[in-house]
Design a protein that fits this description.
elongated, 330 residues, alpha+beta, 6-stranded antiparallel sheet, Beta-Lactamase, 2 domains, Dret_0059-like_sensor, 45% helix, Dret-0059-like sensor domain-containing protein
Length: 330
């Protein structure tokens, strides 16, 4: 029995050594085939790969709607700060004009060359010449400014630069509600926009003038909202691909990338009757401080109707509410 068992054991090992290499070779062959198959598969997969598949999760997130919404909110916050800063700068310019009137000593001595350059009348008092010189500087430094004037508490124009038809020294503005309101309230303010005789629209910044604690009138800086907001809009478009629109609280359009929209009243306008989402959005923007909404309208400069998403916030400038809105197509 032991001899038989030994023979069987030897035969078993012999079979193992004979068969095993075959199995190993077969296994190796199978592995080679798998490697070959994997190589083919890998080669095919590289042919079909999209470079974006190798982007990080952060890169993918940037392309998502949530990331774009975050971008819009960030740009809107930056825009709000920039607008408030530049409006404050205009108020400071108006304040400098007021100081010239309020302070007795002449602050700026003009040469004959400066008189000629800015067409300042020589019969004017030194203080008035100084005032007009500063008015001219404000125009030169701010592309959006149209005129700078000093309007008395009797609503009569006492000084203006530049003088133009329909707005001259000595003209009475007593028929303008904003002028009468300013002479009544005597506080810094920015008016709603108004239509200009020569075409286009303007708003005015008013700053009160007090001489010996007596109210004398106010400095008016009339400016074009279109030009004022255009620089912001162009930078926003270039840096992020977003569009800018600005509304008054009553939904009248102060700025739009489509110039034909500027000055239009959104609510109650028959032009938007076929776009109920716009009317609904305008009502929401007018009523709420900030938020987001979607609507359908023409893509800027085309007749193609697209879906748009917008975020807005409110800034108070000179007592007036402006609704700043950033938009993108979705």
């Amino acid at each position: 029995m032991k001899k038989t068992a030994a023979i069987l054991l030897v035969v078993s090992f012999a079979i193992l050594f004979i068969v095993s290499p075959g199995c190993i070779e077969k296994q190796n062959l199978k592995s080679d085939e798998q490697i070959s198959d994997n190589s083919d598969s890998s080669e095919n997969s590289f042919d079909n790969l999209n470079p974006e598949d190798f982007n990080s999760e952060d890169d993918k997130l940037k392309k998502s709607g949530e990331a774009l919404d975050l971008l819009m909110m960030t740009k809107l916050s930056e825009l709000s700060g920039d607008v408030c800063y530049d409006v404050e700068d205009l108020f400071l310019s108006a304040k400098k004009c007021a100081k010239i009137i309020e302070e007795e000593p002449a602050r700026i001595m003009l040469s004959e060359e400066q008189d000629e350059k800015f067409s300042l009348k020589t019969p004017d008092t030194e203080k008035l010449k100084n005032l007009k010189f500063l008015m001219a500087q404000i125009l030169l430094e701010n592309d959006c400014v149209l005129t700078v004037s000093y309007i008395g508490n009797d609503a009569v124009v006492r000084a203006v630069y530049p003088e133009q038809e329909g707005f001259l020294t000595g003209d009475s503005l007593s028929n303008q509600k904003s002028v009468m309101d300013m002479n009544k309230n005597k506080i810094p303010v920015i008016t709603d926009i108004f239509e200009l005789k020569q075409g286009g629209y303007a708003a005015a910044l008013y700053y009160p003038v007090f001489l010996n604690n007596t109210y004398e009138g106010f400095i008016s800086i009339a400016f074009s909202p279109d030009i004022f907001f255009r620089d912001y809009a162009e930078k926003l478009q270039t840096n992020s691909g977003l569009e800018l629109m600005v509304l008054q609280k009553d939904s009248l359009i102060l700025y739009d990338p489509d110039e034909s929209e500027i000055g239009k009243q959104t609510l109650g306008n028959p032009e938007y009757e076929n776009f109920p989402e716009i009317l609904k959005s305008a009502e929401k923007i007018s009523a709420e401080w900030s938020g987001s909404t979607n609507y359908s309208y023409f893509s800027t400069g085309t007749n193609q109707i697209v879906k748009k998403r917008q975020f807005w916030t409110t800034v108070i400038c000179g007592g007036n509410e402006w609704k700043l809105t950033v938009l993108r197509e979705i």
